[in-house]
C-alpha cells in the first residue's frame, strides 16, 4: 500500500502541533514545580527537560539526602540518578554542582549509574576532568587505562607511583620537589611547577576495587617486584588528603600539623594554595603490608586462629578492612575453600574476622551482610550436619550485626528465609530467641511489621516448650502490647500477638 505524500504545509502543521503539546507539558510541569511538588517529580523523566524545573528538583533532592538516613537514601537514589542521567546536559550540570559542593557520595553514585547502566565512557571522562585531569595527562592516561580494562598493569602502576609517591615506604616522605610536575601538550600555556596531581584522581570507587582485587585475590598472586608499588598507591589513595593553607582549620584534627609530613602546593582544581597531608601514609602502608602477608599465607587454609591476634589491630584501618573483606569473599566462595578443608563442625575463623570488621566500621556492615547472604545461599559439598552448623554460624554473625544496630535488613532476611522454606526451622527459632533477648522497647513500627510475623508463625512457635523457653517471648509480647506502635499494627497481627501472649503467659 502506497502512503500519501505529505506536503510542506501538512508537515509544518504537525510540527507546530507537536511543539504546542510539548510547550503545554513543560508549562504544566513548571506549575507543578511552583506548587512545591518536587518530591513527586524526582522520578519523572520529563522533569529534566526544563532547566528551572530540573534545578528545583535537584536542589530539593540534595537537601533531602543530607537530612535522610542511609535506608531512605538507598530507596530514593535509583529514581534520582535516572533523572540526573536523563541527558548529557543534566548529567554535566548535576556533576559540576556535586563537585563544587563536595558531595562525593552523590557524585560517585551518579557516575557509577551512568557508566554501568548506560555504558557511557564520557561520564567517566567528565569525572576525571572535574577532578583536574587535564593538567596531568600521564596520570589520566594510566587511570583511564585501568578503568577501561578493569585491571591494572605494572606499567600503569609505575606511572602512578612516579607521579604520586616516588619515595619508597620507609624512606623520607615525598616533597614538593620530588613529586612529578605536570606536563602539557605543545602549544598549551605553561603550568605552575609546584602543582602536584590531585588525590581525587585516585579515589574512583572502581579504581579502588581494581587495586584491591589485584592485591588480595588469592587466585592471582602479585609479582613480588611490583607488590610494594601496588601497596603504595592503595595506601596513598586511602590516607593522603589536602587542606587549604589559608583556612582557619589548617590543622590536623585540631592539632599542630607536622610540617615534615606535609607538602605545600597549589590545587589544580581550585587554584588555591593547599597542603597535602601525609601523616597517615606510613602507618596505612604498614597495615596493608601486614594484612597482605597474613592473607597470602592463608590463601589455601581455613585456619586463621594463629594470626588473628596479629591481623585484628590492622582492621582498624577502613581500607585494610575492605581488602580483607574482599579476600574472605573470594577465599570462601570462589575458591571453594570450605568444601575442600572444612570438614568439622567448627566454624571457619574467617567469620570471626567479619565480626571484627562489622564492629570497627559501620559503613562496612552492609558489605559484611551481603557476604553473609552469599555464603548462606552458596552450595558447598559438606555433610548435612556440618552444613547446618555452618548456616547456624552465619545466622550468629547476622545476630551480631543486629546487635550493632543493623536491624531491619537482618530481620527482613530472616523473614524471607522463613517464607521461602529455604532454612531449617531450628535456625529461625534460634534467631528469634536471640533477638528477643537483645531488643528492648521502644520498638519501631517497621521492626514490628517484620519481626512479629516470624515469632507468631505456628511452625516456629510449635518448637518451643512453655516455660523457660517462652518466658522471654511473653515479656516481649507484653511490652509490644503496651507500646505506642501496637495500635498501628494490622488487626490480624494484633490478634496473633494477643493469642500468643495468652497461650504463653506463665
TrEMBL record:
PANTHER family xref list: NEGATIVE ELONGATION FACTOR C_D, NEGATIVE ELONGATION FACTOR D
Pfam families: TH1
Subcellular location: Nucleus
GO molecular function, one term: RNA binding
CC terms in the record's Gene Ontology section: NELF complex
GO terms for biological process, alphabetical: negative regulation of transcription elongation by RNA polymerase II
Protein name: TH1-like protein
Family note: Belongs to the NELF-D family.
Amino acid at each position: 500500500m502506497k502512503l500519501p505524500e505529505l506536503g510542506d504545509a501538512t508537515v509544518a502543521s504537525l510540527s507546530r502541533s507537536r511543539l504546542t503539546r510539548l510547550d503545554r507539558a513543560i508549562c504544566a510541569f513548571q506549575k507543578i514545580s511552583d506548587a512545591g511538588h518536587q518530591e513527586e517529580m524526582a522520578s519523572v523523566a520529563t522533569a529534566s527537560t526544563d532547566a528551572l524545573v530540573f534545578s528545583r528538583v535537584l536542589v530539593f533532592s540534595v537537601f533531602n539526602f543530607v537530612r535522610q538516613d542511609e535506608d531512605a537514601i538507598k530507596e530514593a537514589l535509583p529514581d534520582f540518578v535516572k533523572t540526573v542521567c536523563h541527558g548529557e546536559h543534566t548529567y554535566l550540570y548535576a556533576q559540576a554542582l556535586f563537585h563544587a559542593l563536595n558531595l562525593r557520595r552523590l557524585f560517585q553514585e551518579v557516575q557509577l549509574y551512568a557508566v554501568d547502566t548506560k555504558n557511557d565512557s564520557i561520564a567517566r571522562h567528565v569525572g576525571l576532568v572535574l577532578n583536574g585531569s587535564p593538567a596531568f595527562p600521564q596520570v589520566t592516561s594510566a587511570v583511564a587505562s585501568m578503568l577501561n580494562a578493569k585491571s591494572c598493569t605494572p606499567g600503569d602502576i609505575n606511572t602512578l607511583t612516579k607521579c604520586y609517591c616516588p619515595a619508597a615506604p620507609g624512606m623520607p616522605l615525598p616533597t614538593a620537589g620530588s613529586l612529578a610536575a605536570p606536563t602539557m601538550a605543545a602549544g598549551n600555556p605553561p603550568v605552575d611547577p609546584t602543582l602536584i596531581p590531585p588525590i581525587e584522581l585516585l579515589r574512583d570507587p572502581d579504581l579502588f576495587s581494581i587495586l584491591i582485587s589485584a592485591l588480595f585475590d588469592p587466585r592471582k598472586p602479585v609479582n613480588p617486584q611490583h607488590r610494594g608499588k601496588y601497596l603504595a598507591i592503595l595506601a596513598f589513595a586511602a590516607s593522603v588528603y589536602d587542606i587549604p593553607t589559608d583556612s582557619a582549620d589548617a590543622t590536623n584534627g585540631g592539632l599542630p600539623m607536622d610540617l615534615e609530613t606535609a607538602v605545600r602546593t597549589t590545587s589544580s582544581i581550585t587554584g588555591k594554595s593547599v597542603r597535602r597531608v601525609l601523616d597517615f601514609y606510613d602507618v596505612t602502608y604498614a597495615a596493608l603490608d601486614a594484612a597482605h602477608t597474613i592473607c597470602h599465607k592463608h590463601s589455601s587454609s581455613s585456619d586463621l586462629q594463629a594470626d588473628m591476634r596479629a591481623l585484628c589491630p590492622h582492621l582498624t584501618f577502613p581500607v585494610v578492612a575492605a581488602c580483607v573483606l574482599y579476600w574472605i569473599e573470594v577465599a570462601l566462595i570462589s575458591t571453594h575453600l570450605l568444601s575442600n578443608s572444612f570438614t568439622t563442625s567448627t566454624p571457619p575463623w574467617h567469620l570471626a574476622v567479619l565480626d571484627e570488621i562489622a564492629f570497627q566500621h559501620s559503613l562496612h556492615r552492609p558489605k559484611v551482610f551481603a557476604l553473609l547472604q552469599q555464603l548462606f545461599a552458596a552450595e558447598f559439598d559438606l555433610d548435612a550436619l556440618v552444613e547446618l552448623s555452618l548456616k547456624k554460624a552465619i545466622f550468629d554473625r547476622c545476630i551480631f550485626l543486629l546487635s550493632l544496630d543493623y536491624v531491619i535488613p537482618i530481620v527482613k532476611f530472616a523473614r524471607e528465609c522463613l517464607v521461602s522454606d529455604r532454612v531449617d526451622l531450628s535456625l529461625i527459632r534460634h534467631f528469634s530467641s536471640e533477638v528477643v533477648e537483645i531488643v528492648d522497647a521502644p520498638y519501631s513500627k517497621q521492626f514490628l511489621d517484620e519481626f512479629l510475623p516470624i515469632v507468631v508463625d505456628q511452625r516456629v512457635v510449635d518448637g518451643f516448650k512453655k516455660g523457660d523457653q517462652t518466658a522471654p517471648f511473653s515479656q516481649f509480647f507484653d511490652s509490644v502490647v503496651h507500646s505506642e506502635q501496637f495500635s498501628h499494627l494490622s488487626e490480624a497481627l494484633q490478634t496473633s500477638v494477643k493469642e500468643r501472649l495468652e497461650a504463653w503467659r506463665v
